[in-house]
Every structure is written in C-alpha cells, then in structure tokens.
Amino acid sequence: NPWYAMPASVSPGGKTWLDQGLGEFLAGRADYRRFAGDNVGKQKVPTLRNVDQRPDAAFVKAYMHNGYFKTLKGVVHFYNTRDTKPACKDPFTAEADALAQGCWPEAQVGANVNKAELGDLGLTQAEEIAIVKFMQALTDGFEPPAGTQRLARGVR
Question: Are 105 and 120 in contact (CB under 8 A)?
C-alpha cells in the first residue's frame, strides 16, 4: 500500500500506523467505548453498485479499505484463498508479488477477521471469474443528460 511509503507530513505513522477502523472511532466516544473492542479493525462495506465504474478504461481502481487490491479479480481471489495460503514474509507485500509468491499479507487487525464465511470458499478459477463478471454487470453506465446538474432529489 503506497500510503505507508508517503512522507511523514502525509502519513505520520509510516509503516507503524495501524488502522483500527470502527473500533478507533468508538473508543473515542464515552457513550460507545464499551463496543470498541468488538469492532477494532472493522471497516464500512460499500455497495457493489457501480463497483467497476471508472472514468476511462485506463483508470486503475483501488479496492478494500486501504486500496490494496487493484482488480476485482484480486479481491475475489483473496476472499476465496485467504485462509489457504501462508502469510507473506513481508507484511507490505504488494498484490502482484503476493500472487506470484502464493501468499497473502496478514491482516493488520486479526481479531475480527471473518473466518466462518470467507477465506476458504473452495471456488474454481471459473467460479471466481463468474463472480467478477456478475459484479461488473452491476455497473449501470447511467450518465445524466449533458447540461443537467448532478444534484440529489430535493436539493436546491
């Protein structure tokens, strides 16, 4: 993830920074603090609508909360094989290198990783591709007519 290599003015923690996700927010609020431990490392999951939409074909997407994956294929393969491959020796191994080495970096926060439903799905390569094609089909391609304003309904 390029975030960790940015200058200290942008990423003060560098490689030592740990994204605590929702747990960090909850820990900072006295009224929610008791829920923080169960939510450390959890991230908001966005909708799949327009998940593959991009301004042009050359645009490189960044998936997951930290932008680690650059393709939907990589995301699906990760959730299919996360628990079947060894941990990469370097926790900052890039996606392409992890695929070449047959490993995945360990989760930054392992306490709340969903191992019951994800990580060892047993999908074939053809099934992974079918899931990617399905997600790509969720891109609607809608563009407002030229000259119209992009405002939500009721906004003036």
Answer: no
Q: Count the alpha carbons within 13 Å of 62 in the hemisphere toward its beta carbon.
A: 8
Q: What is the pLDDT of residues 75-130, one digit of tens each?
A: 999 999 999 999 999 988 999 999 999 999 998 888 888 889 999 999 999 999 99
Rounded to two decimals, what is the model's pTM? Answer: 0.77
Q: Are residues 36 and 73 in the same domain?
A: no
How many Å apart are CA 52 and CA 62, to the nearest integer? 10
Which residue range forms the structural domain that includes residue 79?
Answer: 48-139
Q: How far apart are the first and last CA of the chain?
A: 40
Distance (Å, rounded) from C-alpha 88 to C-alpha 99?
10
3-state secondary structure of 125: helix
- 148, part of any domain: no
Same domain for 59 and 27: no
